[in-house]
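The passage that follows is intended for readers who have already worked through the single-chain material. We present the inputs for a multi-component assembly, then the predicted structure in tokenized form, and finally a short commentary. You are encouraged to pause after the input and sketch how you expect the pieces to fit together before reading on.
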Amino acid sequence: MRIELTVNGERHEADVWAGESLLFALRERLGLPGSKNACEQGECGSCSVLLDGTLVCACLVLAAQADGHEVVTVEGLAPEDGPHPVQEAFVQAGAVQCGFCTPGLVVAAADLLARTPDPTDDELREALSGNLCRCTGYAKIFDAVRLAAGAS
Amino acid sequence: MSAPARKLERGRVGEAVRRADGIPKTTGEFAYASDLQAAGMLWGHTVRSPHAHARVGEIDISEAVTMPGVHAVLTHADVPGTKLYGLEYADQPVLAFDRVRYYGEPVALVAAEHPEQARRAAEKVRVEYEPLEPVVDMERALEQDELHPDRPTHEPDHYRDDPRANVVRSILIRHGDPDTEGDVVVTGEYELGIQDQAFLGPESGLAVPDGDGGVDIYVATQWLHVDRAQVAPCLDLPPEQVRIHLAGVGGAFGGREDLSMQIHGALLALHTNRPVKIVYTREESFVGHVHRHPARIRMEHRANRDGKLVCVHARVLLDGGAYASSSTAVVTNASSFACGPYAVANALVDATVVYTNNPPCGAMRGFGAVQVCFAHEAQMDKLAAALELDPVELRLRNALAPGDVMPNGQKVTGSLPVADVIRRCAELTVPEPEPLPRDSLRLPGGSGNVTRGEGVKRGVGFALGFKNLCYSHGFDDYCAARVRLFAGADGALAAEVHCAAAEVGQGVVGVITQVARTELELDDVTLAPGTTSTVDSAGSASASRMTWMVSGAVAEACRAARGELGARGGTLAPGEEIDVEKVYRHPQTWPLDPETGQVTGERAHVAFICSAMRAVVEVDTDLGLTRAVWIGTAQDVGRAVNPQAVLGQIEGGTAQGLGLALMEEIQTRDGLITNASFTDYLIPTTLDMPPVDAVLVEEPEPDAPYGAKGVGEPPTVVATAAVAAALRDATGRDLTRVPVRPDDLIGL
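Having made your guess, compare it with the prediction:
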């Protein structure tokens, strides 16, 4: 089936199989592999995107459900003049190791700061609890979000 | 909690350098193995055994090959070369023939236009199985029917001859007089479940036929050249026709040492003459790589009234699962470190790893040291209680130091500041208990179904552990690096470094460029992509060896390039270049005598690294739920090449050790994995991890380039033991098995 959707401000059309997830369509049909395929079961948050402004796991949304809707992926987060403050802070704080969880965490953290510009430690931990990271033990991810909160 | 980073100056050794791959990884630009695409690409899928043990009869692919979109269905009959492969011992079929020995073992392959078409065709591959009784208990395996006609113990002159059934390898170490008695004796039996590496990037790769009979494989791996050494014979190709390139790696932790899709993807690509991509699902990933060995350990510690250990007996049994993988080395490590970083004059260590029909086990961060650390640290706490001594004081009195002889006969040389890490860790300020009432997010169980904290008890534990650096026991380990020094159009010098070291997230690309900048005194240094095509082997990204080995190799190549530059008068004309490749070897090691377990030369291990950790936990004794409150640790690091990256390794390694203590276990029933998902196999989240207060103990290792030690493993070795000790302190229970379960903690 053919779907039409807006991704990172651009109109896209794609022919998808009815069972395909939005994640598969983004990665394999629209050339946007930034959202990651870590579990494809909605458990790890690595495929986090904004669907009409709401943070979702792209693996749990059918591509067909995104027909006519607006999606922002990690590739569309940065302004034209450089990385998003959360992206810059992740690198500065040493929050990136293998990086497979990073796009999802960056999208989730940017969403958190857009809603709660100065989160408490508990709010921060709660907000990111749906994003698994296996490398960092999270300490530097917390540092990065605090750094980004201070910068913006 | 992190120490303040040193000021970033020029990206040289000792500075907190930003990751060059940092921004691309945050923007989605960085290409992981599963992100790759090629024109005309097909999707590969693996047909896997639903049985843990079965005879394999006819494999009927006739319906599968006619399914829509299908280009190939392959079985063992289509493997042109060697049918078996393996990291240290070739016992694993590329595709099953005659027998399957574990749940999820690859039996056939499908390539199709769409991954769903490949999956559906895979369901139509008819395999005739005759189920056999699975061997699932590591103790009983020693008396059951042999699972393998040949096994490493049959290799002449290499391994100890062990007539018991299903023994992959056994080590018996006799040190001093194992009959020596002490004033006080404590014994214990310990058990560890199967832990999974649970890296987030599933096994993936893209195989591209070169049109000339050869193949290029882009894959997430830990050691490109050893992959090629295993892949090429199975494809019946000379090594130069198999080129393996490092694609972005989404974590490894030992789980990518063994092959996953490499041979399978190449077979499909060569058969269809199309690029083929294979991406495992999460469920497949849980069955598709080796795990940490589960263990049963019995220990007896004998000490005198003054608190000095006089004799240790340790019996370690590891379940290696269906194939050998790196079991032969894991069991040797377990035997080496069974007595912990303590000086003990007499010991008897009996360590065995067996074949079963359980999931295959191999390398995972800590590699044999994690299991024995959990046991020896529980024993040291028991001993402290029996002697009415402070547990930290007991450890100090027995701390291993340079000059001491280990049970395997190796005299410790170089840097091993055991007493220092104990003291530095013990000095850290433990946070005061947080009063009740408090936000439920900060109670055991978090914001779920919790009490108001009435039954919460707090405990504090301490643990000490150590491990080897680099490969051991006579393995001829080396690392190659190549440096191209050239002048740009403006005459300014620049360098390009080639090194096949696998960047798995640990930051080795940073180490390589830091060393090159330091040695060349140049800022313009770039690192070429990792591949088997342009440079010799770098060895494996494992055994805490990569920092040491690449530092040695890159430094030697850079010094040779500088020497040549000097000979040419110190400058290069535009277009002129210097291109040198150097191989670095660490100090030689020797194997153990198969009968006595004693080292046959100066050293069995290259060097050591140690760590001490204090953990504070709270246990809701009504609900059996836990909360890790705080962790403090002091770790021997030799010298921190990049302090920020070192702290990142310590925090992340601690999380994996905590996971094994509290939640992580691959569950099996008759050899079948029952929790192959992140819904059922839990790893620590942001709500599970406490702050980690880490102190770096810098005592440069004399044999290591820049004195730097690898740092990734010690936090994982020690964290499981530290968290378990804290749980014992909170509950008064023995807690001899990890992961500790809620029903182990209730009804006090």
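Commentary: Residues 546-567 of chain B form the longest helix (22 residues). Residues 214 and 237 of chain B are 7 Å apart (CA to CA). How closely did your sketch match?
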